[in-house]
TrEMBL record:
EC number annotated for this UniProt entry: 2.4.1.-
Domain Starch synthase catalytic: 156-414
Subcellular location: Plastid, Chloroplast; Plastid, Amyloplast
Native source species: Zostera marina (Eelgrass)
Family, as annotated: Belongs to the glycosyltransferase 1 family. Bacterial/plant glycogen synthase subfamily.
Keyword Transferase among UniProt keywords: yes
Catalytic activities: an NDP-alpha-D-glucose + [(1->4)-alpha-D-glucosyl](n) = [(1->4)-alpha-D-glucosyl](n+1) + a ribonucleoside 5'-diphosphate + H(+)
Protein name according to UniProt: Starch synthase, chloroplastic/amyloplastic
Enzyme class of the recorded protein, top EC level: transferase
Keyword line: Amyloplast, Chloroplast, Glycosyltransferase, Plastid, Starch biosynthesis, Transferase, Transit peptide
Keyword Endoplasmic reticulum: no
One GO cellular component term noted in the UniProt record for this chain: chloroplast
Residue ranges annotated for the Glycosyl transferase family domain, each copy included: 471-621
Length: 679
């Protein structure tokens, strides 16, 4: 069989399975030329299972292959049955058998498959033994240049949230939306994030697409801006309610003018976000893996995050599916912090534009306000979503079994069910072997030599006596009741007679900030507290400290303990949520035990438990056991590789179109696998 021409779609049609059935093996596929734009992609159908190359009897057999010549790449590529990409074809010739191919020796930069015009023809003989057809293609060019193999039934996933790193972030939510979508895209799925445009992002371009949404009795026009990062479509919803809240850069003031405060129109802002997100897959024509342009369509999975986007499953059911739209779409709600639920006066339900039939999903009696009736967005999202997830397995158990950690929703979640998947972290930004903020880079083989040097630099930086032999403790985190910095402050007198130093860094509650700043006055040669955030100093603390204390009253997942372990800094953690899943007592850290979740008091039992655990940790400092724990910490893999695989499995259980992507890590081309390693 031979074909030629300039239309890739025409050429693909000539390889339909019905035509292949009629061929008699062996047959020859001959490609004369195919003209494509630069950086475009030709999808090539190949036969899998029991396909073999005609080869000498002494050559090993492989099951399938396809020859690709990629734009801007100088070598021929072969994707074999195990999806390995061989960039040096000649060196693999003996492994592939008697495979004959011609390389263009006169050109080192190719324009799609255009260079084949000068090659005469490129012939490969194959035998047909099955009709199983699979499609391989190269992902569109993005900032990561990741190369992946896509399945015919890739999932189309739309993450909706109020934060996405690096554009907007106040905590773990922004990190998740920055990294998890990229990890899923690297596994072969088409992924979009939809978040507000809080600032004028230089790398996001106006799509010129405008949609109209209704908030109460008012109509609002929203506009979409677009960027591509790591193979993910980053969509930003543009509206004055997001862009004009803060003079200058928004920074951490996404939800209120001060930490802990809320803007009075947050219900309107996030209702608008949800409605705009529902329109995005239908109206935005975005480039696909083969460099064509199309919308995501309606067969998508929406992944909502926390209360801010909990209206989306409600709008999806009432405003779309009840009218014959998004009939195959599914919604997932991921709870990052159940303590924030979006509890509004029940009278405001009528402003949401939802039918009365959904009223009961929002109805909630708030015991924290003397039994006042509220419209609880998170409750409604839990009830209306097709699946509920949270950010660690242990936290999933807590929210259904602990009335305090379930925050009055434990009975609802117990009925709907919940799945916990431990988050990953950005191991590219937090990598001791490449960290630009620390004076000495290191890995697990040099950690014990490097950390004393960094410790001395840190001590000098914050004004502590320089002593590489003293155990250095650290605290980094938001200063609020959940994080337990007040418990730490109350505990210090209990171990102040020990030989130690403490460096604390954080911002938040003004009372807690004052506690931090007072540390130097109380313990002038032992402690320094800084009520600010400085990226360089945070990296220096993580790298230079011997222990990091995480005394959270509750912690759905937590990031600090993962970042610390990357640098061989041993975590001392309360036994809650993701801290239980990620820190193993005596192996990678120290478990304090569970704390009282009531943030209005500091429980003396918690103070005692923290004091005892810190003393226990200091006791093993500079011993073989401490060295072993330090190295154990650095051997942990907290990348997004495994979380992405687990998310994929959960999303594939949803009965939606195209859910059987089933791309295993072994089926990702090397460039994509390398990218997976740094999420």
């Amino acid at each position: 069989m031979q074909f030629s021409g300039t239309d890739p779609q025409h050429n693909r049609q000539m390889l339909r399975a019905s035509q292949i059935y009629s061929m008699q093996a062996p047959f020859v596929i001959t490609i004369y030329s195919c003209t494509l734009r630069q950086n475009s992609c030709l999808s090539i159908y190949i036969l899998t299972n029991n396909i073999s190359i005609h080869q000498s009897s002494s050559s090993p057999r492989i099951k399938s292959f396809v020859l690709l010549r990629m734009s801007s790449m100088s070598n021929m590529h072969v994707i074999s049955a195990n999806s390995c990409v061989y960039r040096d074809l000649e060196s693999k010739a003996t492994q592939l058998g008697s495979l004959s191919c011609i390389r263009n020796q006169t050109s080192s930069a190719y324009q799609g498959l255009r260079s084949l015009k000068n090659l005469g023809k490129n012939q490969t003989r194959v035998s047909l033994r099955t009709s199983s057809v699979r499609k391989y293609s190269y992902a569109r060019k993005s900032s990561s240049s990741a190369v992946v193999c896509e399945s015919e039934t890739e999932m189309r996933v739309v993450f909706v949230g109020t934060e996405v790193a690096p554009w907007s972030k106040t905590g773990g939510l922004g990190e998740v939306l920055g990294s998890l979508p990229s990890a899923l895209a690297a596994r072969g799925h088409r992924v979009m994030t939809v978040t507000p445009r809080y600032d004028q992002y230089s790398d996001a371009w106006d799509t010129s697409v405008v949609v109209e949404v209704k908030i109460g009795d008012e109509l609002h026009n929203v506009r979409y801006f677009h960027s591509v990062q790591d193979g993910v479509d980053r969509i930003f919803v543009d509206h004055p309610m997001f862009l004009e809240k803060v003079w200058g850069e928004t920074g951490p003031l996404l939800y209120g003018s001060e930490s802990g405060d809320d803007y009075v129109d947050n219900s309107k802002r996030f209702s608008l976000l949800c409605q705009a997100a529902l329109e995005a897959p239908r109206v935005l024509n975005l480039k696909t893996s083969d460099n064509s342009s199309e919308t995501y369509g309606e067969d998508v999975i929406f992944v909502c995050n926390d209360w801010h986007t909990s209206l989306l499953p409600c709008f999806l059911r009432s405003n779309y599916q009840s009218h014959g739209m998004y009939t195959n779409a599914k919604s997932v709600l991921c709870i990052h912090n159940i303590s924030f639920q979006g509890r509004f006066p029940f009278s405001e339900f009528t402003d949401l534009g939802l039918p009365q039939t959904l009223k009961s999903s929002f109805d909630f009696i708030d015991s924290y306000t003397d039994g006042e009736r509220k419209a609880n967005w998170l409750k409604a999202g839990i009830l209306e979503a097709d699946k509920v997830l949270t950010v660690s397995p242990h936290h999933a158990k807590e929210v259904v079994s602990d009335e305090f950690k379930g925050m009055e929703l434990e009975n609802i979640i117990r009925n709907t069910g919940i799945t916990g998947i431990l988050n990953g972290m950005n191991v590219q930004n937090w990598n001791p072997s490449t960290d630009k903020y620390i004076p000495v880079q290191f890995d697990s083989t040099t950690v014990m030599d490097a950390k004393p040097i960094i410790k001395e630099a840190l001590q000098a930086e914050v004004g502590l006596p320089v002593d590489r032999n003293i155990p250095l403790l650290a605290y980094i985190g938001r200063l609020e009741e959940q994080k337990g910095s007040d418990i730490l402050s109350e505990s210090i007198p209990g171990f102040s007679d020990e030989n130690f130093q403490l460096v604390a860094l954080g911002t938040g509650n003004k009372i807690f900030e004052k506690q931090l700043e007072d540390l130097e006055d109380k313990y002038p040669n032992k402690a320094r507290g800084m009520a600010k955030y400085n990226a360089k100093l945070a990296h220096m603390i993580i790298a230079g400290a011997d222990f990091v204390i995480i005394p959270s009253r509750f912690e759905p997942c937590g990031l600090i303990q993962m970042e610390a372990m990357q640098y061989g800094t041993v975590p001392i953690v309360s036994s809650t949520g993701g801290l239980v899943d990620s820190v193993k007592e005596g192996y990678t850290g120290f478990q304090i035990g569970g704390f009282n979740v009531d943030g209005s008091i500091v429980d003396p039992k918690d103070v005692e438990a923290l004091t005892k655990t810190v003393k226990r940790a200091i006791k093993i400092y500079d011993t073989p056991a401490f060295t072993q724990i330090t190295k154990n910490c650095m051997e942990q893999d907290f990348s997004w590789k495994e979380p992405a695989r687990n998310w994929e499995k959960v999303l594939q259980t949803l009965d939606s179109h195209g859910k059987q992507a089933n791309i295993d890590l072994q089926e990702i081309a090397p460039a994509a696998r390398e990218k997976m390693a740094v999420f």
